[in-house]
Write a structure and sequence with these properties.
The chain has helices at about 5-30, 30-35, 40-60, 70-100, 105-110, 115-130, 135-155. It has 7 helices and no strands.
Length: about 160
């Protein structure tokens, strides 16, 4: 998109997503043995990295100068689609492992997916259709991805020690 009124948002989002992705990587390295003890956590850690990388790359695409709405939409749709597909696949695997676990163990994670990569893809489709409001959907998906990244980092750094 490269519009000046979105540049500050995308710069901040890109930095925040990159920092959170780094923090998830640190959490994984610090608690790797504990993470590997729980069959659902390696996938959750990978999913957190993919969600944050999707947000970071979407923010980077938003910074490409002089990009048309359609081309920006194609990028956003592709990024959001890949992120969404990975999350769904990861959660199907987690459900198979955790189907006998309490509902709240996987429900929150399952509810995160529709609010992260999916709005990025949906916003991209809107842009392809010529709807500038799609960028707001992308922004929502990026912000939700940052919140999901903080939540998962907390689980991988703190909750795993309980």
């Amino acid at each position: 998109m490269g519009e000046s009124n979105w540049n500050d948002f995308f710069v901040a989002a890109m930095g925040a997503a990159g920092a959170l992705a780094g923090l998830v990587a640190v959490a994984i390295s610090i608690n790797l043995k504990r993470i590997l003890k729980y069959k659902q956590l390696p996938g959750r850690a990978a999913e957190a990295l993919v969600i944050l990388m999707t947000a970071m790359l979407a923010a980077g695409v938003g910074l490409i100068p002089h990009e048309t709405l359609v081309v920006n939409g194609i990028w956003m749709t592709a990024l959001g689609g890949v992120g969404f597909g990975f999350s769904v696949q990861s959660q199907i695997g987690a459900y198979r492992v955790m189907r006998n676990a309490p509902l709240d163990w996987w429900l929150v994670r399952a509810l995160i997916t529709p609010f992260t990569s999916f709005p990025i893809a949906a916003g991209g489709i809107m842009q392809i259709m010529g709807m500038p409001v799609g960028i707001s959907w992308v922004a929502f998906g990026i912000l939700a991805s940052l919140a999901a990244g903080v939540y998962t980092t907390w689980i991988l750094l703190v909750e795993i020690l309980r």
